[in-house]
């Protein structure tokens, strides 16, 4: 996409920074997901609300028929408000508090993804108090690595997530002893921004081993949840606006040995919403420092923390200028040295007032914004409303 793809004349009137969502791209992405899952029997996709809980986007995602994957009571509330049926809500997280569990029980969500025996016992107790039986899946830590940033791997033995594989059978036996929980499946998640399909294949192999082991113990389960993690092409948001869902689902269709009648659940976040979102900022000042030139923009790490937190790459474009490129460090106004979006990149020559587009920001962007430095949270605009 070049600057022609953005309604820059409409942006001129808006206060920056703000998130701009291309709802047409989101709809196309959802259409692709639905087409690809329909080829495989029993595949259900839950949208990982943590990636972006913008109510407008949630409604579009719900209309496409996806379920919701939540990690807090707040996310369950957001999903319900957007119209996701409780029967399509799964709820994970190592630290579920009582009110959050009670909310899930009251609404009869599809399943709690339980991360410890201690949590299992609390869910059982709270369900008993309501005379209910909670559907629970056990989140197993598969000790499968993922080729991604260390901060966003989750499926290694050293991570805080899930129940250790060696404790799986004991946990299932424990669940069987409790009257107010019903064990329905296994849950996994190995990490995020994964582009090597071999990582998902390794997860399939591990799940096959675990299912074989369960069978030896005459334990059957209704469903398997493999989490999310499919990455996107941050380098080429124009060339690859929609991730390769076909290859992704095919890995599971080919490598995972589902038992008859079992359903397979996915929890995709980034792959659904990342490419449809752009953070739009204005250039405030061009500053020639002692050794480099800075483009200082009005968006900061408070609006998009990924570059500061994970050294994440986001493609940046000057969508106001056609002049030959110059080299800049693109930085924000926050009083932190890590408030940097990119170092030594080429941008069409920048002037005060130029609009800057920070691409592929739809996932873990707006939702991770903060008010540090007493800043306002960024607003959002939908392409179909402008
Ligand atoms: N399921 C579970 C249990 C998860 O922990 C996550 C993400 C997902 C699903 C969705 O993963 P996705 O499909 O989006 O990769 N803030 C970081 C990413 C953190 C991901 C946390 N868990 C970032 O900006 O890269």
UniProtKB/TrEMBL annotation:
Catalytic activity as recorded in UniProt: meso-2,6-diaminopimelate + H(+) = L-lysine + CO2
Keywords: Amino-acid biosynthesis, Decarboxylase, Lyase, Lysine biosynthesis, Pyridoxal phosphate
Molecular function per GO: diaminopimelate decarboxylase activity
Entry-linked InterPro entries: Ala_racemase/Decarboxylase_C (IPR009006), DAP_deCOOHase_LysA (IPR002986), De-COase2_C (IPR022643), De-COase2_N (IPR022644), De-COase2_pyr-phos_BS (IPR022653), Orn/DAP/Arg_de-COase (IPR000183), PLP-binding_barrel (IPR029066)
Domain of life: Bacteria
Function according to Swiss-Prot or TrEMBL: Specifically catalyzes the decarboxylation of meso-diaminopimelate (meso-DAP) to L-lysine.
Record-given protein name: Diaminopimelate decarboxylase
